[in-house]
Automatic annotation (TrEMBL), chain B:
Alphabetized PROSITE patterns for the sequence: PROKAR_LIPOPROTEIN
UniProt signal peptide: 1-23
Ranges where the Periplasmic binding protein domain occurs: 53-301
Name of the protein in its database record: Sugar ABC transporter substrate-binding protein
Native source species: Litorilinea aerophila
UniProt keyword list: Signal
InterPro entries: Bact_Solute-Bind_Prot2, Peripla_BP_I, SBP_2_dom
Length: 351, 339
């Protein structure tokens, strides 16, 4: 699935034959998620028009989608590169608690505390990647371990230093204002509050899409996930690339933590619990393969959008939240079935 | 290729719809509207045009919160109003704030919330109040409810509950007590011990706080046993929940002190109720969470229809006390999911 085609100068290679727009669209991984997102939107627009179609409602599901979407985009990149990161949820708790502890107990301005947390998060991401490369254990196992270690350390240290697991009053610490402008800025449209996280989500998604489709690193990622040995043979620095991708997911987790603690003004050691699975689900709904080498950032964004619309739409439609997990699981299985089918069809067409 | 693409698109459409319809059908089933005993058409005519959304922090699988939800559902039937119950999948205040935002956007006639983290939820609750939605808080948040613009808080204030427990314990003749705290640092639990200690001190007694491990009942049991050995003057123990009560019972049983040392606890569980019935435990402080689910629905319905308000900021559902006289009855009610 690598795209290392070389055309003879001047003449058009037969492998570069122009394919129709429709055909090109149909082989895109995010098509399933796009269709799904449109259907989910129509479904709730019909069943719960008052809440779902209102500006307030739109702002609400976009905000939910944005938090998850930032994670899902990074997770999708890593999955395309052939690895998993189950520690992103714990990392949100760790980064948030670090910012809160440093600013409330040490008097460090919140934005500096956030920078320290960023360094720690990138360090943990590096360790995750390094261990995966050195031990050659599946990243699933390594990051499953770090999921628990990080969560445990977060709870232990937070309790040791502050005596509790929840730290509030972050809007009263030094440097909160700058953080608020950056991460919790809001745009009021007709009484509805659109948060900065939505912009961050779009920015992260656009950046990841550009990297994947328009840069050499993007080709490397597809190569490292699809055929690592072949990629190594043509000189792709697979190990460095993978460590970099683990640091990317750690960065995404830090970004979500920074947004969350600025918006809600408190940190909790349990923040981000189970987000690792939700992020993988969003990436998979968006067409990213569990086996690596195939997927897209836009797909992951759409997966997160579907998630956000369903999660909030259930409230608008008046369905008990008990049923949310049923929706989520059903969507996951449908998405994987559809994606498998598309991939086989696409591979058949390529032969 | 075109054909397979179409097939795939159609398949996706069908699959999504089936998923949605299935979930929507299942989803409708547990709603209180359709589960009433009265025949559906009559019920429909009889329904008031009032829709209330409840957003709590309690997870659906927690037995404590199932009782709250049973109270909510019963009140919805009794008041003939439509009620939707929402809670985040994990203890996640960001998700909970987002659920409140969604509830506000759906323009309900009333909103019920629990407030375990005022920093995280404050903005969303204020936005609800500003949007003109009457809000009642329950269970946690008694100290911040008023400043957030909430009409009333329905719940137990932790300090007063501990204080009531201390008075009752002192009246039973306790002088040297242990307060077994399974989560030191949790403000609510610290307040319980504080109230208990203050009431005991007024009666001339002393209280020592003993920290135990929440997730490790064996550790808790050993530590309680050690504390009893180290301090033979101790004649009474208060635990702050069933997670502390069970190890305390085991420690007393092992030391042969069951029924001799006065034991009391916060909150109910089957083994707590049985111990009270059998005389091995003095009482349980009950915050009656069924009322925390039931009363807000009644209050909001009355407010909506009749502009009735209750003048007390905090409507106390606890401390209620379960003692040997009432334990047997409460066991029956507990099996029905209302205690």
């Amino acid at each position: 699935m690598t795209t290392t085609t070389t055309a003879a100068p001047g003449s058009r290679d037969e492998r570069l034959v122009e394919s129709g727009l429709l055909r090109r669209l149909l082989t895109r991984p995010e098509l399933g998620a796009l269709g799904g997102a449109i259907l989910v939107w129509i479904f709730f627009a019909i069943t719960a028009p008052t809440g779902f179609l209102s500006l307030r409602g739109t702002a609400s599901y976009l905000e939910v989608a944005s938090h998850l979407g930032i994670l899902a985009v990074a997770v999708a990149l890593l999955m395309i590169g052939g690895e998993f990161d189950l520690s992103v949820g714990s990392m949100i708790g760790l980064a948030g608690a670090t910012m809160a502890i440093l600013s409330t107990t040490q008097g460090i301005p919140l934005y500096l505390a956030a920078l320290v947390a960023l360094v720690i998060a990138l360090g943990v991401g590096f360790i995750n990647g390094y261990l995966v490369i050195r031990t050659k254990l599946p990243s699933f196992i390594i990051t499953l371990g770090s999921l628990f270690i990080i969560r445990g350390l977060t709870i232990a240290f937070t309790r040791m230093i502050t005596g509790r697991t929840q730290i509030g009053g972050l809007d009263r610490v030094d440097g909160y204002e700058l953080m608020r402008v950056l991460f919790a800025g809001e745009l009021m449209v007709g009484g509805a509050r659109f948060r900065a996280s939505i912009l961050w989500w779009l920015l992260v998604g656009a950046l990841a899409t550009w990297v994947l489709l328009r840069t050499r690193v993007g080709n490397w990622i597809f190569g490292a996930g699809g055929a690592p040995e072949a990629a190594r043979n043509v000189g792709v620095p697979v190990d460095k690339l993978k460590i970099g991708l683990f640091m990317t997911t750690a960065f995404a987790a830090w970004l979500v933590a920074a947004i969350q603690i600025t918006v809600v003004k408190s940190a909790d050691t349990l923040r981000g619990e189970q987000q690792e699975f939700i992020a993988i689900i969003a990436a998979v709904i968006g067409g990213t393969l569990l086996t690596g080498g195939y997927g897209s950032a836009i797909g992951a964004m759409l997966g997160a959008l579907i998630f956000g619309m369903v999660k909030q739409g259930i409230v608008f439609a008046g369905v008990d939240a008990d049923w949310f997990n049923v929706f989520l699981g059903t969507m996951l299985i449908i998405a994987v079935l559809v994606n498998n089918y598309v991939r086989q069809a696409a591979e058949k067409a390529r032969r | 290729m075109k054909w397979t693409g179409k097939m795939y698109a159609l398949g996706l459409v069908a699959a999504m719809f089936i998923g949605m319809v299935v979930a929507a059908c299942f989803g409708a089933a547990p709603a209180p509207v359709s589960t009433a005993e009265a025949p559906a058409p009559a019920q429909q005519q009889d329904m008031r045009d009032i829709r209330i959304v409840v957003v709590s922090h309690g997870q659906a699988s927690d037995p404590f919160w199932s009782v709250v939800k049973n109270g909510v559902d019963q009140a919805a039937r009794d008041m003939r109003v439509q009620v939707e119950y929402q809670a985040p999948q994990t203890f996640d205040m960001v998700a909970m704030a987002q659920l409140i935002d969604a509830a506000v956007a759906s323009k309900p006639d009333g909103l019920v919330v629990s407030i375990p983290d005022p920093d995280a939820l404050g903005d969303s609750i204020r936005a609800a109040v500003e949007a003109g939605i009457p809000v009642i808080s329950m269970n946690s948040g008694s100290d911040v409810a008023k400043e957030l613009g909430v009409l009333n808080h329905v719940g137990q204030t932790e300090y007063e509950a501990g204080y009531g427990g201390g008075q009752r314990m002192a009246a039973a003749g306790a002088t040297h007590a242990l307060c077994v705290n399974q989560e030191v640092g949790n403000v609510a639990l610290d307040l319980r011990c504080q109230g208990f200690a203050d009431a005991m001190a007024e009666a001339g007694g002393t209280v020592e706080v003993l920290a135990v491990e929440l997730a490790d009942p064996v550790d808790a049991q050993q530590r309680i046993a050690a504390a009893l050995t180290a301090n033979p003057d101790v004649d009474s123990i208060l635990t702050l929940g069933p997670t502390g009560a069970a190890p305390a019972l085991a420690a007393l049983e092992e030391a042969g002190l069951l029924g001799q040392i006065k034991l009391a606890t916060f909150d109910l569980s089957p083994e707590v109720l049985e111990a009270i019935r059998d005389g091995n435990m003095l009482f349980a402080i009950d915050q009656q969470q069924y009322l925390q689910g039931y009363l807000p629905i009644v209050l909001l319905t009355l407010y909506k229809e009749n502009l009735n308000t209750v003048a007390n900021d905090v409507i106390m559902t606890g401390p209620g006390f379960v003692t040997q006289e009432t334990a047997a009855q409460v066991i029956e009610l507990s099996a029905a999911g209302t205690r």
